[in-house]
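Narrative summary of target 7.
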Amino acid sequence: MIAPLVQHPWQEIGHRLQAACTAFDPALTGHHERVSAAAADLARRLGLPADQVARIHFAAGLHDLGKLGVPREVLHRKGRLNAEEMAVIRSHTEIGHRLLDGSAYPEIRCAAEVALSHHEFWAGGGYPRGLRGEAISLEARVVAVADVFDALRSERTYKAAWSDEQVIAEMTRESATHFDPAVFAVFLEAMAARPAEVARCGQNA
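Modeled conformation, tokenized:
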């Protein structure tokens, strides 16, 4: 595989770690790239500064890095997971954090925090720390929306791919407890605007 052109060492580190995730779990092929793109787009729509958008784009690509430490037979279990197996799956947040924490690069430190916190819930009850509200980093709150959207739209060993309509309905149902309401509102605006944006692109082609 030829690595994409990079400007900074941390970018190459990110590309290689993403490649390691995909080699370990081919089911993740394309997931990191799609979540990165969606999270960066959402961050821009939130009006965040360019350097923060870039950090979110990078960090989103490594949010599932900790799955390298989860046995394949648990990752790809088709039936319902028992409590012990669920705990093993959830440990990917802390594993990813340990792999990335302590870097001299702020981008990788941001990725460490996103890896740890992207399964925390706005109203509490998420994992691994049970954080709530603004105690969860904004970067993790943005990536959480992008991650859930892509995961539900994707086919996995335990589920078929959902339509966009099904995904949005499910995310809206869960939004009061799961997502930062301000971030989720911008996500819904982006989804509503998407058909018009696609049409404009076609007209300009």
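The chain has one domain: 9-204.
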